[in-house]
Every structure is written in C-alpha cells, then in structure tokens.
Amino acid sequence: MKAIQLVKPQAEPELRDIDKPSPGPGQVLLKITAAGACHSDDFVMNLPAEGFVYPIPMTLGHEGAGVVAEVGSGVTSVSEGTSVVVYGPWGCGVCAFCSRGLENYCSNAAELKISPPGLGAPGAMAEYMIVDDPRHLVPIGDLDPIETVPLTDAGLTPYHAIKPSLPKLVGGSTAVVLGAGGLGHIAIQMLRHLSPARIIALDVTDEKLEFAKSVGAHEAVLSNADAVANVRAITGKEGATAVFDFVGYQPTIDIAMGVVGTMGDVTIVGIGDGVAAAKVGIWAQPYEVSVRAPYWGARSELIEVIDLARDGVLDVAVERFSLDDGVEAYRKLAANKLRGRAVVVPD
User: Fold this and answer.
1) What φ, ψ does residue 302 adopt, rounded to 5°?
2) Alpha carbon distance 231, 260 (integer Å)
3) Dist. CA 296–CA 89, nearest whole Å
4) Per-residue pLDDT for 340 more than 90?
5) Which of 177, 214, 260, 296 makes a 20 to 30 Å CA pair with 222?
6) Do 159 and 301 meet the contact criterion of CB atoms below 8 Å apart?
7) DSSP for 253-270?
8) Rounded distance between C-alpha atoms, residue 186 and residue 151, angstroms
C-alpha cells in the first residue's frame, strides 16, 4: 500500500510502498478515508538528528478518519463498515488520567513506549492503518470524513484549551486568539458558540485577519510591535479575560502576557520553537493571571467536538490533496501557505 513516511530527520517525507498491515488481537484495521497534516508533523520533521526520538521510517498522520475494514480477535465493540475518526493521544487505559478519559496525560505512556499514531506509531497518511484499541475510535455517522478529520486535533486541542476558561468568559469579557490558522480559526468558532465574549483575533497579514473575521472574530489586529497597545485600546484597562496563543513563539507569548488582565488566563497551545516561555512572577504580569500549556484533549471531549460538528457549529477550512500529492501538502504547510487545514485523501 502507499504511505507517506518520514525517512530521516530534517528532510521532506516520502511517498513509499509498504506492506498492508493486519490487525492483531484487540486491534482494528482502518481503510483510511482522510488524514490531516499538522504543524506538529512539521515540528517533528525538523528536529535535529541528535535529538530525534521517533522510529524511522515512520508513517505520518496523527489526524485520521476511516472505515473499519477488519477487526482482530476479541474486538466486539465496533463492526466492519463503521465510519470513524481516531482519538490520537493513546495511553495505557488504566492509570488515573486514562481512567478519566485523559489519555493525553497518561502516566505510563513513556514507560510502556505507547505513542500516538503518526508520532511514534504508524499513522494515517496511508491507505490503511492499525488502531491499537477500539476505544480510540469515535463513530461519525454520515459526517464528511474530509471535513471532520481535522477535528481530532485542530478541533480537540482548542476545545480542551478553551473549556477551563469558559466560566470567566461571561458577558462583557474579552477573548484574544493569537494565530487564525488551522487551530485558531476553529477556536474562534468555538468561542462564538460557547461564550458571549468579544473575540479579538491577531495574525500577521490582513488576509488572515479578514479570514478570522469571516469565521466569527469581532475585532482583528495585526500581530506586530504595536499589537499590545492596539489590543489594549480595545479592551481598556481591564485587559483580556482569556488569551489563547496558537503560535507559541516568544513574540506571541509576550503579546499574550502583555494583553491579559487581572485574574485572566493565558493558554499557550502552539508549539512554536519548543523553547519560548512566559515570564511569570509577582511583578511580571497582572495579579492572579493563570498560565497553562495544555496538550491535545480527552476522549470524551473529542465526542463533544464531533457533536458540535454534527450540530453544524463548526465550518473547517480544508484544502484537499490526494495521497500521491501528500508531500506537497507538507510543503505548503511548512511555507505557511494553507488557509485552514490540509487533508490528504487516498485515491
């Protein structure tokens, strides 16, 4: 079968022919209907060789949708022909976090060498993939898998990031979204649906700001040296109630800390370069500011996100690529030339 694999660090992935897998006991084989490309993939591909911890070659794709093609022995909870998406942050299933559905924070994953698909385990950028356990599958019914597959990360991650701040996002509050790309444009839609907050979006071009307003942002501000002053001109002395940084580089984190108000939340979602940090201390920011750096989301939250999609709340901007053109999707992702998410569809 065809698969897009990372063959060596700091190199483009390659379209290769590999063996079609077969499900073992307790496993499920999916015939892939859609796979999403993500900035996390680009981050992994550009890690230096001396710090590279992933198996090579590795089939990419931690956003996956498919139809159940075959089940291994002992699997009774899903049946062949069911259309599903894959919950990506696999865990042990039995630790305190996994028992609450928070497999993204599994206590035993590192020790047991459990990895997400596309980020250690073989991913969805292929004609078929193995899912380790049927609990990691969420049925999507008649939803379009191409439009739905980004929700497994680009929807789940902002949803998990936003939920803790919702009690603060009441009438008269302000939410700031830094980065209106793949995750940010979905976050704006979620904030509009889940809260009455005024939403201010920041990005680096007028085109992206227009995009942010088209999906629900009330205000749009260029992310530049004047960003803090320009956002503060909108929020007044109260500052922002909650700030969601979907970029994660030092300049955007500095903007987030500069616009947040007293008792506000700063949530750093974007990976950035992996080393940027928020300066926190008694005089470093307004009083009682909370700073979080969440990772992905819970299994139950993915079900909630799919329900939002089923209710017609989310309109995910998707650029479609064939599996043969999947490497080009990663090129456009790296060049920041995508409007929304890239989705690869097997022929």
Assistant:
1) -65, -40
2) 10
3) 7
4) no
5) 296
6) yes
7) HHHHHHHEEEEEEEEE--
8) 9
Give residue for tokens 């209907």.
Answer: 33
In the predicted structure, residue 5 carries a pLDDT above the cut 90: yes
Task: Write out the two tokens for 177.
Answer: 């979204």
Lowest mean pLDDT among 47-61, 143-157, 165-179, 241-255: 47-61
Closest of 1, 36, 37, 45 to residue 22, by C-alpha = 1
Spans of all domains in the chain: 2-153+297-345, 157-292
Four-residue CA torsion sign, 150, 58, 66, 337: positive
CA distance 110 to 128: 26
User: What's the chain's Rg over C-alpha atoms?
Assistant: 20
Token digits of residue 99: 């028992």
b vs e for 214-234, b when ≥16 Cβ sit within 10 Å of the residue's Cβ?
Answer: ebbbbbbbebeeebbebbbee
What pLDDT sits at residue 337?
A: 87
pTM assigned to the model: 0.96
Domain boundaries 2-153+297-345, corresponding CATH code: 3.90.180.10
pLDDT tens across 205-254, in order? 999 999 999 999 999 999 999 999 999 999 999 999 999 999 999 999 99
Consecutive H or E run containing 139: strand 137-139
pLDDT at 298: 98
Alpha helices in the chain (DSSP H): 39-45, 96-99, 109-112, 145-148, 156-162, 184-194, 206-214, 227-235, 250-259, 299-310, 326-334
Residue 192 is encoded by which pair of tokens? Answer: 């509009």
**Strand 28-37 versus strand 63-71 pairing type:** antiparallel
Mean pLDDT rounded to a whole number for the chain: 96
Q: What 3-state class would DSSP assign to 131? A: strand
The answer, yes or no, to whether residue 102 has pLDDT greater than 90, is yes
pLDDT of res. 273: 86
CATH placement of domain 157-292: 3.40.50.720
